[in-house]
Specification:
Shape: elongated
CATH architecture of the largest domain: Sandwich
Oligomer: single chain
Radius of gyration: 23 Å
């Protein structure tokens, strides 16, 4: 008998329709999630292509070996023309539009050729001093030439910083950014970029089809993005001005009284996430990851969050003393890392396991004054909307407190 045969709810992102994400168990629709976003958004589909989804469509993303539910906070692409490089500043760089197939599967990527005297294109926007921004663009080698490296440079309002990206060996050098990245896609495309803090309002992104100043080169480009935040989010297309992708909302707000264990139970979630980083402890608030509880009373339920790079798990109710049963104070949580968490709650026996190891435990009373009837990927949504990006691979609920060995089995990678 599989552990999952005991589950009262199983969500493995697969089936959906507008406004709804289906659960495998139960099969009567009670466990289906309500979804909304309010704007179009992109995902990577099963063919590895960037695809635009409607405002009520959940995004099953395939940037890994298996699909996952992609949930993101609101972001704005401040690049006025994300694909039309002829509308960017600077002159002299030769642009051939619609030269090859881009990451979205259509022939709309541009070929840029620079000379020793004219070597870059630029796109500016009005930023805010002290705010963190992330710039990115999709780039591909022209294999008919010897060019292997492209360069991104940013004027942050006070000074310049840059990095070189070698697409032939996927390495980054000479970086002045706070952090940099290079991500591979289908058909030898790469998304490259970096994060920085603005020192003034005039922020400019420069792209080079070569390794830098005074160097001739050839490179294909598509999909530039300049967004406030410490990590890149899914691509937002623009054509003449900034565009905002609204926040994802995926939840069950009521009706799960008979699915969720009211006096004991277990929840399991398999996920990755990205959160905003900051060194200012006064503003580094908690980042909600998951809540099993009730929308009518946020003091009831089981919550899981990230606080200053540490996972925390709480079992709390108005009729009990809040139990903190997990805090990975000995090891910081890592972005872009897959985690499996299982939490069981029962009077005298509360435990949390993370990636096969005990995260914490509690022996207090479990008593909820209000029925636990909902599942939220942001705490008490919509009053506290999604703050960080999540990739959810699976989610399960059990109406019993599983054994320690079962929790360890569930969470072992």
């Amino acid at each position: 008998m599989s552990i999952y045969d005991k589950a009262s709810l199983i969500q493995i992102p697969s089936g959906y329709r507008a406004g709804e994400l289906y659960s495998v168990v139960p099969n009567d629709g009670v466990g289906d999630f309500t979804f909304s976003r309010g704007s179009a958004a992109t995902r990577i589909n099963e063919q590895g292509l960037i695809e635009t989804m409607g405002s009520t469509e959940p995004r099953l993303n395939w940037d890994d070996s298996c699909p996952h539910l992609l949930l993101e906070p609101q972001r704005t692409n401040n690049t006025a023309y994300s694909e039309d490089f002829s509308s960017w500043g600077d002159v002299g760089v030769t642009i051939t539009p619609n030269a090859i197939v881009s990451p979205d599967g259509t022939t709309n990527a541009s070929k840029l050729v620079s000379t020793a005297n004219n070597w870059r294109k630029s796109s500016s926007f009005s930023g805010s001093s002290g705010v963190t921004y992330t710039v990115s663009i999709y780039a591909k080698l022209d294999t008919s030439t010897s060019t292997t490296t492209t360069r991104l440079e940013v004027y942050n309002g006070a000074g310049s910083l840059a990095a070189n990206y070698n697409l032939s060996n996927e390495t980054i050098s000479n970086s002045g950014f706070t952090s940099v990245f290079i991500e591979s896609l289908e058909d030898d495309w790469y998304r490259i970029g970096g994060t920085y803090t603005a020192g003034g309002t005039n922020n400019i992104l420069y792209i080079y089809p070569s390794a830098g100043y005074g160097t001739a080169g050839t490179m294909y480009f598509w999909g530039a993005q300049q967004e406030a935040g410490s990590y890149p989010t899914s691509y937002i297309s623009t054509n003449g001005g900034s565009v905002t992708r609204l926040v994802d909302s995926c939840e069950i707000t009521s009706g799960l009284e008979d699915v969720i264990g009211q006096t004991e139970g277990t929840l399991f979630i398999d996920f990755e996430y990205l959160y905003e980083t900051t060194t200012d402890s006064s503003t580094d608030a908690s980042r909600d990851i998951f809540t099993l509880g009730t929308a009518s009373d946020v003091s009831e339920g089981i919550s899981f969050d990230n606080f200053r790079s540490q996972f925390r798990v709480f079992v709390q109710g108005s009729g009990m003393t809040t139990q903190s049963i997990g805090n990975n104070s000995t090891g910081a949580s890592q972005p872009n890392t897959r985690y499996k968490l299982a939490v069981k709650y029962k009077t005298g026996d509360c435990k949390a396991y993370l990636n096969g190891s005990l995260l914490g435990s509690g022996t207090g009373t479990v008593s909820f004054a209000a029925d636990l009837d909902g599942i939220f990927f942001s705490y008490n949504s919509p009053s506290r909307p999604l703050k960080n990006q999540k990739k959810v691979y699976s989610l399960s609920l059990f109406k019993e407190a599983l054994s320690d060995s079962e929790l360890q089995t569930l969470t072992t990678l």
